[in-house]
Design a protein that fits this description.
- By secondary structure, the chain is α/β, with parallel strands linked by helices.
- The protein has 12 helices and 18 strands.
- The strands form 4 sheets. The protein has a 7-stranded mixed β-sheet.
- Helix 1 packs parallel to helix 5, helix 1 runs parallel beside helix 9 and helix 9 packs antiparallel against helix 10.
- 47% of the residues are buried.
């Protein structure tokens, strides 16, 4: 492939999903990844119905469900006393939106997209770190750290939080939340998993911290995540989020949560950043995608999903923007992409921040939150309709491009 139609910079979940989406439209696509090999770091990831409906359209939902778990419920508990605050019936939620709620290992999701791209003939290249982007008379170009430049009619910058392309549009910096995440997986044969209901996605919310667990890989693994506000970060220290802070942050939590802390990977942690929303994502023939455009905090579990949505929507607008000869009107496709996605993702970024504040309340505010959550009806989906509903992908004056299918045709039952 000497002259691809599209260059995608970044071979993470968002970049591969975009490459696959565009290849389905008959375009030749090259993905350029800075790492020496394609891969994904982390553990579990949650895929809500607004993502699984896209996986179904991609023809990948059956494979995804075979790799993950379809849980029965999402339960929120108080991290201090362990009491239940509210829950979502995820099976009922799946019926409401037509597609299941799925949890999967991040590397399994990435691997699935990588295989799909290989089957589609996407050109996959590693060890390519992008340092500069530019528009050209024929499209756009990317310059890499080794000095060589590649060109295509369109360049998609899916190069993450520290995207080199974002500076073409705005001069801003990542925003530190002062929170840090620790992760770890435990085989369900170990004592820690004894008595844990793997049909639940559980989150324990506490003052300045929270703890999440759910099953992965067909119930073979228990995934755990511990997140807390770092006093060192708030004090401006450079070495923040260390294991001693982890233990101190959860000292007042219930026994179940504290018992999970020794099972965290203590040699690595993830400091949590986002960026302020921007409404311009396109600069000539260069378009931002995923975290390069809208990196959210993780509180509503939409980071990877928003990137997958970006790629799918772009592919659909490519299909709508062909002239009678079949050539893509890239100006129209990119304008439509920019008209649809920024406002929705702005809401995701800001809602994620607000949800994080709600989870981590203390004192009287915590008691008020708990009372409100306990009073919520379990079949009230008004607070997620905007997020999980199919209309979230399109302008208000456009109908959805497909109708939800019955859940039974998309669902693989979770293991007992």
């Amino acid at each position: 492939m000497s002259n691809p139609d599209v260059i995608v910079v970044g071979g993470g979940i968002g970049g591969l999903a975009a490459a696959y989406s565009l290849s389905r439209q008959g375009l030749s696509v090259r993905v350029l990844e800075q790492a020496a090999a394609f891969g994904e770091v982390g553990a579990g990831i949650q895929l809500a119905p607004n993502c699984t409906r896209i996986l179904d359209d991609f023809g990948l939902l059956e494979e995804a469900t075979s790799l993950g778990v379809v849980p029965d419920a999402m339960v929120m508990r108080d991290a201090v006393d362990g009491s239940e605050l509210t829950r979502l019936d995820l099976r009922d939620l799946g019926r409401r939106y037509g597609f299941p709620y799925l949890v999967i290992h991040r590397s399994d999701l990435h691997g699935m997209f990588l295989r799909a791209c290989r089957r589609a003939g996407v050109d996959l290249v590693t060890s390519q770190r992008a340092v500069d982007y530019a528009n050209t008379p024929a499209g756009a170009s990317v310059t890499f750290a080794d000095g060589h430049t590649e060109e295509a009619p369109v360049v998609i910058a899916a190069d993450g939080l520290h995207s080199a392309a974002r500076s073409l549009i705005v001069q801003d910096e990542p925003v530190s939340s002062a929170y840090v995440a620790y992760r770890g997986t435990v085989p369900t044969t170990e004592d820690r998993a004894a008595g844990v209901d793997l049909s639940e996605v559980a989150v324990y919310v506490g003052p300045g911290c929270h703890f999440v667990h759910y099953g992965l890989r067909g119930g073979e693994l228990l995934n755990q995540v511990a997140v807390f506000r770092s006093p060192k970060a708030l004090a401006g220290e450079e070495d923040w989020g260390t294991p001693d802070e982890l233990d101190a942050a959860f000292a007042g939590s219930c026994g179940f949560v504290q018992d999970g802390l020794p099972h965290m990977w203590r040699d690595k942690w993830w400091r949590m950043f986002d960026r302020d929303p921007i409404m311009t994502w396109v600069h000539g023939r260069i378009a931002l995608l995923g975290d390069a455009a809208h990196p959210p905090l993780q509180y509503i579990a939409q980071g990877a999903i928003m990137a997958i949505e970006d790629g799918w929507v772009l592919g659909e607008h490519v299909a709508r923007s062909r002239d009678p000869s079949g050539a893509v009107d890239w100006a129209a496709a990119l304008a439509a992409y920019e008209a649809v996605r920024p406002e929705h993702c702005r809401r995701v970024v800001l809602t994620s921040r607000a949800w994080g504040e709600l989870w981590h309340l203390d004192g009287v505010a915590r008691e008020q939150r708990n009372a409100l959550l306990r009073a919520r009806h379990t079949d009230d989906y008004s607070f997620v309709d905007w997020l999980y509903g199919p209309t979230a992908l399109f302008p208000a004056d456009e109908p959805p491009m497909f109708e939800p299918i019955p859940l039974a045709s998309a669902e693989v039952p979770a293991p007992a």
